Structures are given as structure tokens and as C-alpha cells.
Amino acid sequence: MLVTYENFKSCNSTDPKFVRISGNDSLPITKPGHYYYICGVPGHCEVGQKVDIRVPKTSTSPSPSLSPSPSPTEGHAPAPGPSKSSASSNQYFKHLLAFQLFIATGVLACFAF
Question: What is the pTM of this model?
Fold first, then answer.
């Protein structure tokens, strides 16, 4: 369940902002912000079944333009690698996906006990 920071610190599940209880729930995080989730099963939050998620704002600056590469005079030129911005973006989404899977596993664990 999604709770306030104060309720997160004290493991207070009496006033959640959002609750899912089917046991097969996902927690879509669609915008930047700070999210606090705890397990609502008595005693679970106190033993660590809670998570603090911080989603950073994405950069709104434009990507740097790529200049055309010179034509090779002889032989084969090495292929250019991925740009730094696309590599960073891919890494961000890999971490975000892994973290969402971690959250889903934690939520499922709340309902397994």
C-alpha cells in the first residue's frame, strides 16, 4: 500500500493513499516523485517489508546533434558505438524495470504470508 512518509517511518497502515490486495498486483509508477510502499499485513512492515522509491525527473534538454562522419579513404572504418545519451537512457530504463520487478515481488510476498 502507498503511504505518506510519516506512515512509512512508523509502519502505520491505517490511512493508506492507495491499496492493492489481490496478491497479483502491479504498481505502475508513471511520473517522477517519491513513493513509499509498505506491506499491510501486521508485523511485515516492522521486519522490513517496505520500500522507498524515488523516481527522478527525466532530462528535458535536447540530445546533442551528431555531425556527419567523414568517408573512409581506404578499408573499413569501425562502426560508431551508441551515443552516451542513448546508453544512459537504456541503463535508466533497465534499472527502472528491475526495480519495478523488485517492488512487485515484495508486494506479492506481503500476501504470501
Answer: 0.49
